[in-house]
Each structure stands twice: as C-alpha cells, then as structure tokens.
Hints:
By secondary structure, the protein is α/β, with parallel strands linked by helices. The chain has one domain (8-244): 3-Layer(aba) Sandwich (Rossmann fold), CATH 3.40.50. It is built from 9 helices and 9 strands. The strands form 2 sheets. The protein has a 7-stranded parallel beta sheet with strand order 3-2-1-4-5-6-9, sandwiched between helices. It has a two-stranded parallel ribbon with strand order 7-8. β2 (32-37), α2 (40-52) and β3 form a beta-alpha-beta unit. α1 crosses α7, α3 (69-80) crosses α5 and α5 runs parallel beside α6 (152-171). The longest helix has 23 residues, at 103-125. It binds NADP nicotinamide-adenine-dinucleotide phosphate. Residues 13, 15-18, 37-39, 42, 64-65, 89-92, 112, 139, 141, 184, 186-187, 189-192 line the site of NADP nicotinamide-adenine-dinucleotide phosphate.
Amino acid sequence: MSGAASRNVWILGGTSAIAQAYARRLAERGAGLVLVGRNEEKLQANAADLSARGGEASVETTDLIAADFDSVAAGLFERHGQPDEVVVAYGLLGTQPQAVADLGHAREIIDANFTSTALWLLAIRARLDPKRPATIVVLSSVAGDRGRRANFVYGAAKGGLDRFVEGLQHAHARTPLHLVLVKPGFVDTPMTAHQKKDGPLWATPERIAREMERAVERRRFVVRTPWFWMPIMLVIRNLPRFLFHRLKI
Ligand SMILES: NC(=O)c1ccc[n+]([C@@H]2O[C@H](COP(=O)([O-])OP(=O)(O)OC[C@H]3O[C@@H](n4cnc5c(N)ncnc54)[C@H](OP(=O)(O)O)[C@@H]3O)[C@@H](O)[C@H]2O)c1
C-alpha cells in the first residue's frame, strides 16, 4: 500500500493487541501514530516498538471510558493536528455471569463498548475538517450481530455501537469522512486469555490487522473478519427463533 507515509493516525486503545498489530503495519510505512490509553508504561513500550519499525509514535494518557471527552478531544487536535485516521480499538469483554449479577459490571461493559465510544466519535467528528478526507475505524464484534444468552451484555453494547456507526456512515455518505466497522470473531489476545483456543475459528491479531488494512484501503463499510464469520453470522442472524432458542450459544 502507498500513502501511509506521514499519515497521522490516532489509536484510542493503544495497548490493544489488535491495534498494535495494525499500527505495526502502518509504522513500517512511516506513519505518525498517537497511542491513547490509560496505561502509560504499556503505551510507551508499544510506542517504542512502533518507532523501532519506522513509525513516529507518541503517547497520550487518559481514561478512555470516563474522560471529559470534549476537552480531551480538543487537546488531541491542539497537540497533533487533524488526524487522517482514527482507530477506536479499546473494549471490555467482561464476564456475562458477573454482569447479570452485578449492575456495576454490566455498566462497565456497556460504558466501555458503547457509551464512551459513541461519545468519542461525536467529539472527534465535530472537530474534523469537513473538507478533508479522513477515516475512522471502529472495532466492534460479531457478538453484536444477534443477542445470545452467553454474552448479551457485551453483545448488546457492540450491537448498539454497530447502529451508531451505521448512522454516522449514513450521515457521511457524501462527505470526505469514511467510517469502517470491523467485526472480528475469536482473536487470540489478552482479552480472550481465559478462553480455550483450540479450533479453526481462532485468528491472530496479525490476521485481523491485515484485513483491517485491506478494508480501509477498499473503503469498505462493514467487515466481519476473518472472512468465514460472514457466512456464519449470516446463518446466525437469519435462523428462525424457534431453532435459535434451542442453541446453547
Ligand atoms: N479478542 C477478541 O476475540 C475480539 C473479538 C471481537 C472483537 N474484539 C474487539 O477488538 C477490540 C480490541 O480488543 P483486543 O482483542 O485487541 O483486546 P486487548 O488486547 O485485550 O485490548 C483491550 C484494550 O481495551 C482497553 N481496555 C479494556 N478495559 C478498559 C477499561 N476499563 N478502561 C480503559 N481501557 C480499557 C485495554 O487497555 P489496558 O491495556 O489499559 O487494559 C486495551 O487497550 C475491542 O474493542 C474488542 O471488543 C476482540
């Protein structure tokens, strides 16, 4: 790919494994990267890794979930100028049994995956130069495609995010701002560290990153990744309720 050189890319969730795999691809082409997150030490380590690969990486520390979104966004624009691309990569899987028993945990999951992300998108969009091309990449999940007993708190938050991004895509269909919604399946990252990873449905963050990059280049609107999640979720979404309710998923 050409054109990544001197691209100004911000990553909200600069410690995410998927985001780091994606950022490495851009760093190798000399992109400027701003890693935003809460863990200064981990962000600095990731920034050093990206700089060693040819990128120009800097770090911004903030509480992504409970920030004063408007003023933090204003500060980012002041210090880093207009971004060419913003990647919203942070998220919280949490645990469904805890979420249904503890409203505090349910709120944490909803705030991390929906509320804060929606507010970041509004705060950033309001400051983007409407005449300048820009891309926003949002990491959602196939879990948002249909409510399931096993993870409907996380799934609903991602599903809400899907609708929100869909609305922004509609609003910006004829503007230079393009939004890409990336919906991975199972990915081997710290988020899924507690899960067993046997079986053909698991993917590496590098594979997701490669497909994210392709989706950005091709100006896709929605990608389920790896590709096999597209037919799987097509079936899951369209399964009649009387059959769906028999599944223990
Ligand atoms: N891994 C999967 O199987 C999978 C599947 C579908 C979708 N996704 C989505 O892909 C995105 C990236 O996930 P990943 O797999 O790369 O996971 P990851 O490596 O575990 O990264 C998760 C990111 O979210 C941040 N985060 C989590 N809880 C937070 C909190 N309470 N406050 C602030 N930041 C918080 C983490 O920051 P710290 O480093 O500071 O904790 C980290 O940057 C997420 O939106 C996730 O929902 C992942």
